[in-house]
Amino acid sequence: MKGVLLAICRSERKGEPKRPVARGVLAENHGLEGDAHAGAWHRQVSLLACADIEEMRARGLPDLQPGAFGENLIVDHLDLARLGPGSRLRIGQNAVLSITQRGKACHNRCEIYYTVGDCIMPRVGLFARVLEGGEIAVGDPVEVVECVSRERFQAVVLTISDRGAAGERVDTAGPAVAEALESGLSAHIYCTEILPDDRDTISARLKHYSDGHGIDLIVAVGGTGFSPRDSTPEAVRDVVERLTPGLDEAMRAASLGKTPHAVLSRGVSGIRGQTLILSLPGSKTGALENLEAILPALPHGLAKLRGDRSDCAVEASTSPVQATGQADQ
After folding, report:
1. DSSP H stretches of helix in 157-198
2. pLDDT over 60 at 153, yes or no
């Protein structure tokens, strides 16, 4: 899929309207040079489709100018609506973007919203990180290098281990869980991290990924036992809004059939916003046993968190999200 770069917009200060420029530089892991929103975070560059802007013009805002929605880049002749997090775009000869988020919360209603009762950036805006830098110019080709369907579930795997975070132990459980989610859930692994057994650190990363990224599932692997530093259950309880005890009961029951130590697991799972957070044991075997016990139910539950209103009696294996995800692998 190829499109064309219709506009480049930037502003030197946050809160100021972005103005169109003919050329720009996308700096690796920074964003559009000279733009106030560039920096070492996940929303370095914002994009909108020309078709979405034209729709707003037709709804009563004919004089909309490039940058009116705070977007950095306007792309034409490319279906941005298909792209989920993890998709990659090449702009011009060298610049490569990785989509990190779709839409965002609008905390302060803008003039556009009060005029037509809608604003497209919170709904359809794309945000990206610059993987490879390069010069860009209006008229440059925009090519989809990799398309990760929006229908695929997005997952984050956090390994919780002091020794792992210090580089003193090779993590085997986290990669195994990520592989199981890819094969068994057709999930796209948004990212993986290794964190120390620190309650505040774990809570902060759980909040980070569940608020605003569009992540469906976060799996924390490790820190669920009796050791003094094991604090994953407490960190999960700090951030979730609704507990999901059925998942925890099913995981412990499955492990109990193989080891009496399963009753020592303090794993806690729950929901924050539209994100399900699971906590699994830190051993590779224990983590996979726990995950396999609940994997068949996850597609249906995650679809519900996305807003699916179908009958709960429908088998999870027929979930359209799961079926689409299988085709995209």
Report:
1. 162-165, 173-185
2. yes
Which of 243, 207, 244, 202 is CA-nearest to residue 224? 202
**Model pLDDT, residue 319:** 44
Q: Kindly report the CA angle at 29 between 23 and 32, in degrees rounded to 5?
A: 20
CA atoms within 13 A on the CB side of 215: 26
Domain ranges in the chain with CATH number 3.40.980.10: 154-328
Using an 8 Å Cβ cutoff, are 5 and 49 in contact? no
CATH ID of 2-146, from 2.40.50.140, 2.60.40.1120, 2.40.33.20, 1.20.1260.10 = 2.40.33.20
Which of 83, 85, 55, 86 is CA-nearest to residue 69? 55
- Residue pair 9/20 in contact (Cβ under 8 Å)? The answer is yes
Could you tell me where in the chain the CATH 2.40.33.20 domains are found? 2-146
Residue type, 275: T
Specify the residue for token string 């941005």.
80
pLDDT at residue 314, rounded to an integer:
53
pLDDT at 103: 86
The H or E element that residue 48 is part of is: strand 45-49
| DSSP of 117-144 | S--SHHHH-EEEEEEE-EEEETT-EEEE
Report which of 7, 31, 34 is spatially closest to residue 21, judged by C-alpha positions: 7
Phi, psi of 284 (to 5 degrees): -60, -45
Q: Is the pLDDT of residue 43 over 70?
A: yes
Closest CA to 234 of 209, 205, 268: 268
Whether domain 154-328 has CATH 3.40.980.10: the reply is yes
Q: Which residues contact 189 (CB under 8 A, 6 or more apart)?
A: 155, 156, 157, 178, 181, 182
Residues sharing a CB contact under 8 Å with residue 294, sequence separation 6 or more, in sequence order: 247, 250, 251, 278
